[in-house]
Amino acid sequence: MSVRAKKHLGQHFLKDKGICKKIAEQYGRHNDCKVALEIGPGMGALTEFLMLDTETEWWLMDVDTESIDYLNIHYPQLKGHIINGDFLKMNPKDFVGDRPFAVIGNFPYNISSQILFRCIEFRNQIPEIMGMFQKEVAQRIAEKPGTKTYGILSVLLQTYYDITYCFTVDEHVFDPPPKVKSGVIRCVRNERTSLPCDEKLYKTVVKMSFNQRRKTIRNSIKALLPANYPENEVLQLRPERLGVEEFIALTCWLEEVTKNAETV
To answer: Cβ neighbours of residue 99 under 8 Å, at least 6 residues apart?
Structure first.
């Protein structure tokens, strides 16, 4: 039995065992995490090597029922831990409870960013994210301030995770081969437990800033600025010049001047 790769699910199955082993070796059980969820395992090419870590409790999740049938046949030892479901819609607490769990996978390119945003929602329960993305997405996630690649996903993920770009993967190791190269990254939870500003406003400031990245921040977030606000030199910059700490400081400043404007 084999599984047919489905284009609408963004499936590209890994076929090079050497690459699978190399990817699996990037998983580091950050903070001694003992539970891990593999998203989109397909036919279990990566699963085979991940499960060599026998100290970890493994869970698999896939939206493809054909893959689920295949996995149940080939990984009977994971009976009850193979879930036919969508990570973007499911609550992890339904299967791992309140325990910390890592997120791992050869992520479908068409929803990889959404998977990361979902991980941010559960960041205090997810100490590590490790896996493969389209190369330009992986580079964007790991990028530092000052480049055109740096953007919304870079800032929001780096707010809560330290990110390492591990290596690049060529197209020919997949079936069917994608049209682009892939990149493997590892994200480990940093020590930031909360923000000193409103998290929803912080996300809004970051997104609005980069949605018009050629403009200065002043022009990009002008809808958020109260009348007669005091000058802030950061407003003269373009968003790629700001790191996480600067975006946090900008949001704190915006909260303060808005509050002051309301009390006048």
So the answer is: 34, 35, 125
List, for residues 1-30, the tens digit of each pLDDT value.
676 666 777 767 788 999 999 999 999 888
pTM summary value: 0.92
Q: Which domains does the chain have, with CATH numbers?
A: 7-189 (3.40.50.150), 199-263 (1.10.8.100)
Which tens digit of pLDDT belongs to each residue from 176-211?
888 899 999 999 999 998 999 999 999 999 999 999
